[in-house]
């Protein structure tokens, strides 16, 4: 899945300062960050396969995402290869969905379609009640920024920024930066949810791989997206850190976020409300015979 771009041109003045240009003496950071209370955002009870969709005012809620008959064929080869062969998927507010499958089965391609980085060849994609199957790229980019959060296998952190400033990059919008106090609180709350608020002023070269991944996850969480797409977010992490990350991802569903997680880890998948398998271009509920 192609990652979103985070430009370094406008450096967020998190903690009241911006890093100096290359070659200039470093300025001393400003006041410390307020630490968000631990344990905020406990995960809601997940839905199991076959469970009814959440109800709103006595009626079934409109899904956040509804894919119907989505197809995708790779045509840049001698033999065209169908990756998605009629995928159906519904994600409601508060849902958590794990997608398992062999390498090359099309899991990342499916996330690219959901995240509007790629277009399906056929089928229909509804975001809420809006048909975005053939949405123009400019509008797709605006929707990605407003509605989606992304977590990748790679971290895509800017090395010259602190952890807090990397997270704050996701708060850029057409109206400029949030007020400093609100921005600082949101950034620290996101870092605290993945257990690294104490590393807010550290830059990526001073962080371990697991810590860098948690910064990347905090960056995805800070905008409180309606849909969070995670592509193997624990692949480079140890077991304990991976479990912490999965719990942080799940905590977003308590605020109504829809979570779609691609993973090879069955233990992590089992924590999701639904577990699906992508095989032969189709999604189906995963049973005990699932091959990941």
Notes on the structure:
It is globular and about 50 Å long. The protein has one domain (65-285): Rossmann fold (3-Layer(aba) Sandwich). It has 292 residues and is α/β, with parallel strands linked by helices. It contains 7 helices and 12 strands. InterPro entries: AAA+_ATPase (IPR003593), ABC_transporter-like_ATP-bd (IPR003439), ABC_transporter-like_CS (IPR017871), ABC_transpr_LolD-like (IPR015854), MacB-like_ATP-bd (IPR017911), P-loop_NTPase (IPR027417). Residues 65-292 form the ABC transporter domain. One of its GO terms (cellular component) is plasma membrane. Residues 1-50 are annotated as: Disordered.
Walk me through the topology:
Blueprint: E1 55-56, E2 59-60, E3 65-74, E4 81-91, E5 96-100, H1 107-114, E6 122-127, E7 130-131, H2 137-147, E8 148-151, H3 163-168, H4 180-193, H5 209-221, E9 227-231, H6 239-251, E10 258-262, H7 266-269, E11 274-279, E12 282-285
Parallel strand pairs: 5-10, 5-11, 8-9, 9-10
Antiparallel strand pairs: 1-2, 3-4, 3-6, 6-7, 11-12
Helix pairs in contact: 4-5, 5-6
Offer a quick outline of the entry:
The protein has 292 residues and is α/β, with parallel strands linked by helices. The protein has helices at 107-114, 137-147, 163-168, 180-193, 209-221, 239-251, 266-269, and strands at 55-56, 59-60, 65-74, 81-91, 96-100, 122-127, 130-131, 148-151, 227-231, 258-262, 274-279, 282-285.
């Amino acid at each position: 899945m192609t990652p979103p771009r985070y430009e370094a041109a406008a450096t967020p003045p998190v903690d009241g300062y911006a890093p100096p240009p290359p070659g200039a003496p470093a300025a001393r950071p400003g006041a410390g960050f307020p630490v968000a209370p631990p344990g905020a955002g406990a995960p809601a009870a997940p839905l199991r396969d076959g469970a009814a969709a959440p109800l709103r005012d006595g009626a079934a809620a409109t899904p956040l995402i509804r894919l119907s008959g989505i197809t995708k064929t790779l045509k840049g080869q001698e033999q065209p290869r169908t990756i998605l062969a009629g995928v159906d998927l519904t994600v409601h507010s508060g849902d958590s969905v794990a997608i398992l499958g062999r390498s090359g089965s099309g899991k990342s391609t499916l996330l690219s379609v959901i995240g509007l980085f790629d277009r399906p060849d056929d089928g229909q994609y509804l975001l809420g009640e809006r048909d975005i199957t053939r949405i123009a790229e400019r509008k797709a980019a605006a929707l990605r920024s407003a509605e989606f959060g992304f977590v990748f296998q790679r971290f895509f952190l800017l090395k010259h920024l602190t952890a807090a400033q990397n997270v704050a990059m996701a708060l850029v919008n057409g109206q400029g930066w949030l007020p400093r106090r609100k921005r600082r609180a949101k950034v620290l709350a996101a870092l605290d949810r993945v257990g690294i608020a104490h590393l807010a002023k550290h830059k990526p070269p001073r962080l371990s791989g697991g810590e860098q991944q948690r910064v990347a996850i905090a960056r995805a969480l800070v905008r409180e997206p309606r849909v969070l797409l995670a592509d193997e977010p624990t692949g480079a992490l140890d077991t304990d850190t991976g479990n912490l990350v999965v719990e942080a991802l799940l905590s977003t569903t308590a605020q109504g976020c829809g979570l779609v997680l691609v993973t090879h880890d069955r233990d992590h998948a089992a924590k999701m409300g639904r577990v699906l398998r992508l095989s032969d271009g189709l999604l189906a509920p995963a049973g005990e015979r699932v091959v990941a």
